[in-house]
Amino acid sequence: MKKIIRNLLAIQLIITSIIAIAYAETGFSAFIVDHRSGKPIYEHDADARRYPASLTKVMTLYIVFEDLSKGKLSLNTKIPFSAKAAAQPPSKIGAKEGSAITLDTAIKALIVKSANDVALAVAEKVGGSEEAFARRMNATAKRLGMHSSNFVNPHGLFNPSQYTTARDMIKLGIAIHNHFPKYYPLFQTPSFDYNGVTFTSHNRVNKDFPGADGIKTGYIRKSGFNLMTSARRNNNRVFAVVLGGRTTQLRDDLMISMLNESFTTGYRGRSVREISPYITKDMTVLFTPTKTVTSDKTVLTNNKRTQQIKPNTAVATATPKPKVNTKPELVMPALVLESTSEYTPAGDYDPGNTPIRGPIVSASGLSHAVQVGAFKDYNAARDKAREAYEKVRNGNVQIFNTGEYYRALLSGLNESEAEATCTRLRQQKTDCFVIAL
């Protein structure tokens, strides 16, 4: 009987993991809420499941603050480092196995350095083990109304079963601000010292936006660049989150633009506003370079920029240069054309029958995409894919480099969704066809 129960639990765990993989994806979301009323001001895909990355540490800190408030911990409590904690990958403070720091230093390390080794050490101290702490994280999330989130670790390093939404992150940000006013100002900590090294905060929005006072940045490859911020002006406070920024610069500039918009025009009117596509459109572009081996990683472009984005203005990005591969390339089979439509492409366009050198990586792991063009110029492909997305608001804008052309895709679709999306595009006089990835 016990064996049957164990097998059933194992099956349930597998099913839960599969569901998490299916619903969490790399993509862009943003959400801004008025603190006093809880009313949304701006949003973009606020309920899409994303990977939280180091925004996870806000939940870790919520639990720490909870125990501090109850007297179960003090700022002088010693946090020891196990071998497992000390071995966590960066970002970290580099504490050695068997060493210990005070909880006060640990809190600053989580906020300023986003230290993964510290996060696990805290989890083991507070929860007894990483697994027990994760159970408490999920119980806390449920209590706070974060019904679209799941946690399996305290730091946010990639796990397919760890996910959240922009809406849930806003709930967490408001909760930690409201429930722990004594400790919330710690999110403004600019630096701290450990073992002779001074660690400095890289939260640029806290420095560059007057009124911003927290709270956390985050990044893993699967999530893109994440940021949760709260700011106050004229007795108004907003909480804002960006998930899936393509670079820190774009993410921070977008956050500043959204905050400015919120305080200047966001309080007018009664209905929630979709974030301007002129602000968000560069966040929704995924660029897949030529590959010679199969990869499950979605590659986000990382174009360095030196100019600030002004609110409601288009963002110009440099044309990526195709990678030069000195190794023999693996010639993959041609894309499978599954649409029955017949049309004659025009302009700087290739219908897509040439061999693909390297696999296309879907933005979400789903099996189909809609191709709306193939161009010699990356920017032309990007703009065509954006134009198509704005017409149907479906799929993920993705640019795939064949080595000869940049293919403009709406990916992240199953077969029926792709066919329906292409049909809608044709109705709006946009040529397209469905491809199997």
Which structural class fits the helix and strand makeup?
A: alpha+beta
Please tell me how large the radius of gyration is: 23 Å
* Oligomeric state: single chain
Largest sheet: 6 strands, mixed
Coarse morphology: globular
Adjacency order of strands in the biggest sheet: 7-8-9-1-2-10
The helix/strand series, from N terminus to C terminus, equals HEEHEHEHHHHEEHEEEHEHEEEHEEHE
CATH superfamily of the largest domain: DD-peptidase/beta-lactamase superfamily
Query: Which regions contain 5 or more consecutive residues with pLDDT less than 50?
Result: 13-22, 290-359
The N- and C-terminal alpha carbons lie at a distance of 44 Å
What is the residue-mean pLDDT, rounded to a whole number?
A: 78
Q: Share of helix among residues? A: 25-40%
Q: Class of the largest domain in CATH?
A: Alpha Beta
Number of domain units: 2
Q: How many helices in DSSP terms?
A: 12
InterPro entries: Beta-lactam/transpept-like (IPR012338), Peptidase_S11 (IPR018044), Peptidase_S11_N (IPR001967), SPOR-like_dom (IPR007730), SPOR-like_sf (IPR036680)
Domain Peptidase S11 D-alanyl-D-alanine carboxypeptidase A N-terminal: 29-246
Domain SPOR: 368-435
Keywords: Cell shape, Cell wall biogenesis/degradation, Hydrolase, Peptidoglycan synthesis, Signal
